[in-house]
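Progress narrative, work stream C.
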Amino acid sequence: MRALFSTEGLHPRNAFRQWRDMLCTQMVPNEIRNLAAAPFHGRIEFTAIGSLPITRSVQSSTRTEVTPEAVRRNGRGDRLYAVFTESGHHAVQQNEREAVARTGDFVVLDHRPGVSEIETGSVLILDLPRERLESVLGPSQLFTTLTVGTNLASTTLANTYIRDLIRVGDRLTPDAATRMASIGVDLMVASLAERLVQEVPRSIQGNATVQRAKAYIDDHLGDTTLDPPQLAAAVGVSLRRLQELFQERGRHISDYIWGRRLELAAKRLSDPACAHLSIGMLAYGCGFSSQAHFARRFKDRHGISPSEYRQAHRWNVQMVAATSKLPFESA
């Protein structure tokens, strides 16, 4: 990791003030108070693995308050932050919850007002896209400010993987770094999902399970073998339970899968970038095992054949293009 700032070599009387000023001007403007009895020491390191920014803070004890004004000024509502405690003790209050993380634990924080106290030690902060986590786990209020502890095997696995990823990150190609970082995020999501099972009521658990199932479906629409049993195994519930959850929401699993495949197919049929694909290739890429099956289901949904649908959209695009070239006539 690359060093961004260190109090080493600074006069003890100025060390905390310069640390605080650096954090507020270069990173996030917060209210930070020194809790250390001894002279303050701190070091900030940074790396980015693919699109995953990671910051390490090694520091004496502090109390940080994120105020509503700081949230408004910073404008990072599309991000979430996973904080791994490498050593020491980390306590946080946010979203009307309190969490305490010790060595090996992690907690996900939202970009909202809150208070955080770090006992002398080290934390890793991973900057995550909110949409990635919420697409699987549901609204962030369900899983933020929950201690995800090392009593869960998935947490230990995520912790070890992230540390090893940092260690070898500079040896990865850009494509490999992106893939490996994505795996790290998936491991954190798995840990959070396991933790949620311990925390939330059954109805909310069901929401999280359905969200995970829908995300899995969208990621595997091109897999012609995707079916309800495979989906249930992927999200870790019985087929009967998953069927109940979908039926409670007025859907059948198979109907939802075929519906999403037909939506993807319609999108590609109307996309000029996919015009070179034959109907059969396009159908297979959307998870249909045969062109005839695809044509039958598509006509049942849209009332016309796939080729007619494609031609109609091609004609619309040509008409719009031609109209845009007409000379403007003033009244």
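Work stream C, second folded protein:
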Amino acid sequence: MTATRVLVLNSGSSSVKYQLLDMRDSGRLANGLVERIGEQSSRLKHTPLATGGESREWTGPIADHDAALKAVAEELAKDGLGLDSPELAAIGHRVVHGGRRFTEPTVIDNAVLAEIERLIPVAPLHNPANLTGIRTATALRPDLPQVAVFDTAFHTTMPEAAARYAIDVETADAHRVRRYGFHGTSHAYVSRATAKLLGKAPEEVNVIVLHLGNGASASAVEKGRCVDTSMGLTPLEGLVMGTRSGDVDPAVIFHLARVGEMSIDEIDTLLNKKSGLIGLCGDNDMREIRRRIDEGDERAKLAFDIYIHRLKKYIGAYYAVLGHVDAVAFTAGVGENAAPVREATVAGLDSLGLAVDDGLNAVRGDEPRLISPAGARVAVAVVPTDEELEIATQTYALVKRKR
């Protein structure tokens, strides 16, 4: 029997998101989420998609990631999909930061683990959790290939002119300070899916991808290769996000330290957790912000306007970088579901060939679709992202090559 199943794990600091896929047809067999790991009120939700069964939920203490993954294995086993199945080909892990070394999916060994650990200083919130998930999964199935798929990998094709910051080269190199970019699996998937929607190969189109969720990033994809992206050394740079500031004058940090007498940790918390939409208006849910705008809330309106202004700036910048643009693709939670965001982002960009059809923009759906008017010079698309499928696809392709 040829093993064709891939379990995808996305381990966060206090959560594990998972999905089991059969790569013969990319079909989903099961998915779920374990959250609030380490608390008395931990929660596991599991959905057996293969059998069409009802979702199962369990609430109670889950001490750590080891206990969480064992609970996931038990739930999968109840549906005949256990981790001991001979049909399981590999486990694919989302790893946020791969630095410059990891430019493609990689079979995990001790050297790979050591490098992911070495990168913790540039991804302190994410890489430690990713490592925990890898080590736990390896202990459960030491005989199975464990594959790391890196958020940063898609962006390693950026030219040095886009990847370098204009600071002293020796200092930058000594501390690995450069622009890495994130959400790479999403940008890779969406750029290819957009090309397919246009009936072309990825190598035939230039696409600006707008991944708009609580975290948000933009990328300029030229003929299938990323040439620029909005996030940098960390996921803080770039667009206005749910709780992150995005671009600020670096001297704001010095000012807050000197004049505001804030510590580095306090400034870090401010810019990462108390800024963006939540810092501007107290909400980071775009639905709530739109509701408040409809009720005449000026603070919510200003937050929305700042959010849109930053998006327009990046579209214009990436239009200049690419020279020619075939499509702008909206994806992720806000990009896929917030029609007012798409409308406002494109409004006034007619001279760039960008426009949306109000009727098409209002339609909701799970499939990639065009929302630009017929005959538009630049296609505007809504393309639901599928990071789990992207991770599974890359994992399975690598394992097949290694057989």
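The two ends are 14 Å apart (CA to CA). No further action is required on this item.
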